[in-house]
Amino acid sequence: MMLSEGALIVLVVLLALAVLTAFKGIRTVPQGEAWTVERFGAFTRILQPGLNFLVPYIDGIGHKVNVQETVLDIPEQAVITRDNANVSVDGVVYYRVMDPERAAYQVQNLTQALTALSMTNIRAIIGEMDLDAALSSRDKINTYLLSVLDGATDPWGVKVTRVEIRKIEPPANLVAAMNTQMIAERERRATVARAQGEREAAIARAEGEKAAQVLEAEGRLEAARRDAEARERLALAEAEATRSVAAAAREGGDAALNYFIAERYIRAFGELAGNPASKLVVVPVEASALAGGITGALEVFRHAGVAGPRS
């Protein structure tokens, strides 16, 4: 049975309506997103990732919110520090939507609002700092901005996880002046370090010379003390020898004394004659005196042999 042209049109219309109804009632949400559902313009619920069903022609999709962590670039802007230095600053903000409903309906344009809020607070904190402090306190600036932005975006259902200042750049002429100042400061430090090194070296040399002089003086003192002891002992020995000679002279009389003198005389003459460096020996005595001394010594020997030891 053949369908009429009118029935065919109705069938096509019904088929299209069925497809449209299925399209309106079945929605697939991708991972990392959350969609809001509105009924007659009022928020009703959140569609989670996956397959979701709506009431066709009554429910509709309001906002598609990205719930992944997002990186927001903060445009470069000129900021004047407390000491009137003009610097260019930019940065990045990492944030994540924690409540899709508030992110969709509590703020009209989340990205624009975060950008404006970040730029305003960057100008505020750097404007309260000197240039040197701003250049050396990036961690402090990042921590302050993170605290302020996270607190300000909490009503929007947004969590600011990280803030990084990428660039704090002074103008070219100021950079040149800072480089000149840095070079001068390094030269000053080098000069001070050299002066301190020379001072310490001079002190060390002086202490070394002082220690050497003390050791030398102690050495001389010890040598003098030992020399004095040697002379004292020699004098004692000489005195003892003199006392022995005197005692022998008292006991042996003139014969013993003559023997002692002759013995010393012969020994000195023998040493003088036996010196290999002596080419000529001059005897400043009379031969008769030498002979008399020797005769006296022999006489003493003879009397000593005759007497012999007594039992």
Q: Numbering strands along the chain, what is their spatial order in the largest sheet?
A: 3-2-5
What is the overall pLDDT average? Answer: 82
Relative strand content = 15-25%
Structural class: alpha+beta
Q: Rounded to an integer, what's the Rg over CA atoms? A: 60 Å
| H/E element order | HEEEEEEEHHHHEHHH
Counting DSSP H or I runs of 4 or more residues, the number of helices is: 8
Tell me the distance between the termini: 186 Å
- The count of DSSP E runs of length 2 or more, i.e. the number of strands, is 8
Task: Summarize the biggest pleated sheet.
Answer: 3 strands, antiparallel
Low-pLDDT stretches are 304-311
Name the shape in a single word.
Answer: rod-shaped
Considering DSSP H and I runs of 4 or more, what fraction of the residues is helical?
55-70%
Counting copies of identical and different chains, the oligomeric state is single chain
SSE inventory with pairings:
Layout: H1 5-25, E1 26-29, E2 33-39, E3 42-47, E4 50-53, E5 59-66, E6 70-80, E7 86-97, H2 100-105, H3 110-127, H4 131-136, H5 138-153, E8 158-169, H6 172-252, H7 254-273, H8 287-307
Antiparallel strand pairs: 1-4, 2-3, 2-5, 6-7, 7-8
If you had to describe this structure to a student in words, what would you say it looks like?
The strands form 3 sheets. A 3-stranded antiparallel sheet has the order 3-2-5. It contains 8 helices and 8 strands. It is 61% helix and 21% strand. A hairpin with a 2-residue loop joins strand 2 (33-39) and strand 3. Mean pLDDT is 82; it is low at 304-311. The protein has helices at 5-25, 100-105, 110-127, 131-136, 138-153, 172-252, 254-273, 287-307, and strands at 26-29, 33-39, 42-47, 50-53, 59-66, 70-80, 86-97, 158-169. With 311 residues, the protein is of the alpha+beta class.
